[in-house]
TrEMBL record:
Residue span, Beta-lactamase hydrolase-like protein phosphatase-like domain: 6-110
Key words of the record: FAD, Flavoprotein, Oxidoreductase, Quinone, Transit peptide
Domain of life: Bacteria
Residue ranges annotated for the FAD/NAD(P)-binding domain, each copy included: 152-271
Record organism: Neoroseomonas lacus
Protein name (Swiss-Prot/TrEMBL): TIGR01244 family phosphatase
Single Gene Ontology BP annotation: sulfide oxidation, using sulfide:quinone oxidoreductase
Residue intervals passing through the bilayer: none
Single GO MF annotation: FAD binding
């Protein structure tokens, strides 16, 4: 965290960590203003954690969350009011610092500060507010007739899907002009976090710099998306910059809605409340598992859709396996509260999973959706829905609580012309073209295709999008590439064994290996070795490099 001074009273910064707060106080800041909503990133501490650390350090902390790219005049006025009331100097932060700089610029312009002074101060701090100046001059709107950048292909998102499709496009047409838009500096191998939570992987092995993964010849625009204007082939970024395109690929991932469970953000990472769905919390899961000698361990699963539908129960299996191996399972009650009606959506895998549920003496509670947590009291509340649709409240105590948050499409997607009624990118499930917008494609977790949201799905989707995009612009010939809904969920049922669930649309099994090698319906040590030793290098060195091993798309006329 490197604060960037706007003037003597304000500095802005990218996301701060809990550990940064003491250094912020030591640097002479007297208050912190957070402009980043909880749940934007998988490595982001919630504001309640920052606020607690700030209070301990003698700092005042204020939470003014502003959706990325959705800075309104009212937000700027509120920022100005907070800034005026807070002890100086103030450190304001968001994901990259751009949002906070934009809020300051707009609030200062409303107060009558000359634009050249605003642009000079922000430029000296490393933030280009030229787009903000155009917005001010245009009466509060960002004009899209002037582009700050133009590319043949613009890809939204530098996660697994975005990098993979960029690499697949470059592999097919090396001279293609591509830009990837993503504000994150770190790219995460999120499938590894289950293993981090079980003490198998070191968390550092699941993270690499974004700069090291952007394919050669692809421009990285380090910014957040504010809005889409597909009728003008334009994307508006934080800071009101405009990027134009010929083809648009949308792969921003999804949003973890931690705030969707009352009391959760205040207790994450403390009081035995953890989640493998956040980079900095997965190690705490392993701490909780090792530290629990007796009591009740509760594991939860929210309503679909979620990233990797098997991940909630993977945490249960690996934790219970550790307690079994260390002789503690007899003193620990294991409960799985699932908002759904079944253990797993593909019936062929359920018998093997049920044998492990019985082995660990786990109690299953279906149609139970976590709604509230009280960490200090070690209590959790669920809404239970019976067969007739009637709802009742269920309360339980816990000594360890592994939470999977509800998950939604990113805010800038849900309010965009790209979204369906539920907020997801509206694509044809076979070709992954947008259903109504020519030249727009979607893949990864943010689409409404009815497939499992896994990295394995993105691995198969990327070549489909690459082929169809290039076909549509006349760069290649042939039929359409089609996606069959493939997804994979390596269910880690114990340390050293995995049920390698692979399936497509409609729950159809799509095993990659012959049954004599890996029987996907049974636990297998070979599948464990695939997950532990082969899949990470396949991810880093093949999928993200455009090498489509076992991922060549099927073509149809």
């Amino acid at each position: 965290m490197q604060p960037k001074m706007i003037d003597a009273t304000l500095s802005v910064s990218p996301q701060v960590s809990i550990e940064d707060v003491a250094a912020i106080a030591a640097a002479g800041f007297r208050s912190i203003l957070c402009n980043r909503p909880d749940g934007e990133g998988a490595d982001q501490p919630v504001f309640a954690e920052i606020e607690a650390a700030a209070t301990q350090a003698g700092l005042q902390a204020v939470y003014q969350p502003v959706v990325s790219g959705k800075v309104q005049d009212g937000d700027a006025a509120q920022f100005g009011a907070h800034f005026a009331a807070l002890p100086k100097p103030v450190l304001a932060y968001c994901r990259s610092g751009t949002r906070s700089a934009t809020l300051w610029s707009l609030s200062e312009a409303a107060r009558g500060r000359p634009l050249p002074e605003i642009l000079g101060a922000t430029k000296a701090a490393g933030y280009d507010m030229g787009g903000v100046a155009r917005r001010i001059a245009n009466g509060g709107r960002t004009p899209t007739d002037i582009a700050d950048a133009t590319h043949q292909v613009v890809i939204i998102g530098g996660g697994a899907a975005g990098i993979a499709v960029a690499s697949s496009l470059k592999a097919r047409k090396p001279d293609l002009d591509i830009a990837v838009i993503d504000p994150a500096e770190i790219h995460y191998y999120q499938p590894g976090w289950t293993m981090v939570g079980a003490g198998v992987f070191d968390p550092a092995t699941t993270a690499r710099t974004m700069a090291s993964l952007i394919p050669s010849g692809v421009r990285w625009i380090k910014a957040a998306v504010a809005a889409f204007e597909p009728d003008k082939n334009a994307v508006i970024l934080d800071g009101c910059r405009v990027v134009k395109y010929t083809s648009l690929v949308v792969a921003p991932g999804l949003k973890l809605n931690w705030a969707g469970i009352e009391g959760l953000t205040e207790t994450l990472g403390r009081h035995g409340v953890t989640s493998n769905y956040r980079y900095d919390l997965a190690p705490y899961t392993w701490d909780c598992v090792q530290g629990l000698k007796a009591g009740r361990a509760v594991f939860t699963q929210p309503p679909m859709p979620i990233k990797c539908a098997g991940a909630p129960q993977k945490a249960l299996y690996l934790s219970a396996d550790h307690w079994l191996r260390t002789g503690r399972l007899g003193d620990i009650s294991v409960d799985f509260y699932n908002a759904g009606a079944v253990l797993f959506g593909v019936k062929e895998y359920v018998p093997a999973l049920m044998r492990y549920i019985e082995r660990y003496h786990a109690q299953l509670h279906f149609q139970h959706n976590l709604t509230r947590v009280d960490g200090p009291a070690r209590r959790a509340w669920f809404t239970r829905t019976d067969a007739d649709g009637a709802k009742t409240k269920v309360e339980t105590a816990f000594d360890m609580l592994h939470v999977v948050p509800p998950q939604i499409a990113p805010d800038f997607i849900r309010v965009s012309p790209l979204a369906d009624a539920a907020g997801w990118v509206d694509v044809d499930q076979a070709t992954l073209r947008h259903k109504t917008l020519p030249g727009v494609y979607g893949l990864g977790d943010a689409t409404n295709a009815p497939n499992a949201k896994t990295a394995a799905a993105a691995r198969k989707q990327a070549p489909v999008v690459a082929h169809n995009l290039l076909k549509d612009i006349g760069a290649i010939m042939g039929g359409d590439a089609v996606y069959d809904g493939y997804g994979s969920c390596p269910l880690t049922v114990e340390r050293g064994k995995i049920v390698l669930a692979e399936f497509g649309y409609g729950g159809k099994r799509l095993p990659s290996f012959p049954s004599w090698l890996i029987d996907d319906t049974q636990p297998s040590h070979l599948a464990w070795l695939l997950k532990e030793r082969m899949l990470p290098p396949i991810y880093w060195k093949a999928m993200l490099r455009g090498k489509e091993w076992m991922a060549k798309p099927e073509l149809v006329q």
